[in-house]
Amino acid sequence: MKNVTIKQLRAFVAVAELGRFRLATEHIGVTQSAISVLIKELESQLGVMLFDRHTRMVGLTYAGEIFLPLARRAIEQVDNAINTMDDIASLRTGKVTIAAAIVLASSLLPDVIARFKKEHPLVKVSLLDLPENRIRDLVADGSVDIGVATSRPIEEKVREHHLFYDRFAVFFAKGHPFESGTQVRWIDMEGQDLVGFPPDSPIQKMVDRVLGENEISVNRLFAVNSHRRCCPWSIGVSGCALLQRTLTRCRPRH
Question: Could you give the CA distance from residue 161 to residue 49 in angstroms, rounded to a whole number?
Fold first, then answer.
C-alpha cells in the first residue's frame, strides 16, 4: 500500500502551479531542500516521475499532468473534512442527542435547548425523555451524546458534571391542610397520603432514604411513572407528592 501524505501532495501542487521550487517553498512555508525531499518521496511512492526538471523552471511530465487534478481533489477533500470537524468542534454545525429524565425533559430543557439553538442554529438537537435508570447505559454505549438526570454512582465510561442542585417541594391540591401553613417540614409528612414513583426511580429512592433516616411513616397510595400524574390534583386524590422544585408548572408549598 502506497503511503502518500497530504504534505507531499501540497508540495507537488505548489511546484506544479508555480513552476519553481523556490516559489513553492515560500508558498507552503518549508525549505527548498525539504520540498525537494517531499517531491522525491512522492515520486518514489507512485513509481513515476512527476516533473521534467530544467535549469530554471520545472514542467510536468505526462504522469504529472494526469496526477495534478487528482492531487488537487484529494487536498480539497482533506481540507473539507478538516473544516467540517472544526465546525463541529466549535459548535457551528453538527448533531447532538440528549437523553433526559422525563421531569427535566419537560420542564427545564426546552428553554435551554431553545437558547442553544439561537446561538448555534445549524446544530441539530434531539431530545429523548426516558426513565432515569436507562440514561446512563445509553450514554455509556454511545447511543446518546449527553444524559441529564439525577446524580448517582456512574460507570467509568461516563463522566459526570453537576449542572445544578435542586430541592424537594411538597405538592398538594387546593384545600389540603398544608395550604394553611407557611412551611412544610419533612416531619410534617408523618401519616400523609403520598403519591410517588416506582421504587427503582432515583427520585423515589432519595425520598425513601430521607423518610427512612428520619423514621417518618407515610401512607403510600400508589406509584406513577409521570411527574404530571404524580401531582395529586391531576389524579383526583387528596394526598400529596414530594417532587423536585423544577416542576414550576405546579404550585409547591415548601
Answer: 57
Residue type, 89: A
Q: Which three cell numbers stand for residue 34?
A: 525539504
Cell representation of residue 185: 417540614
132-173 confidence digits (pLDDT tens): 778 888 998 889 999 998 776 666 778 888 887 778 888 888
Q: Is the pTM of this model over 0.85?
A: no
Hey, what's the cell of 62? Answer: 505526462
Query: What are all long-range contacts of 229-232, with beta carbons under 8 Å and residues at least 24 apart?
Result: 230/171, 230/195, 230/196, 230/197, 231/171, 232/171, 232/172, 232/173, 232/176, 232/195
| Closest by Cα among 231, 212, 235 to 107 | 231
- Please name each of the domains of the chain with its CATH number: 6-89 (1.10.10.10), 94-148 (3.40.190.10), 168-244 (3.40.190.10)
Q: Specify whether the CB–CB gap between 196 and 204 falls below 8 A.
A: yes
C-alpha cell at 25: 517553498
DSSP state of 253: B
DSSP label of 246: T
Strand-pairing partners, residue 147, are 99
> Which pLDDT band holds residue 250 (cuts at 50, 70, 90)?
very low
Strand 123-130 and strand 94-101: pairing?
parallel
Name residue, grid cell 473539507: 80
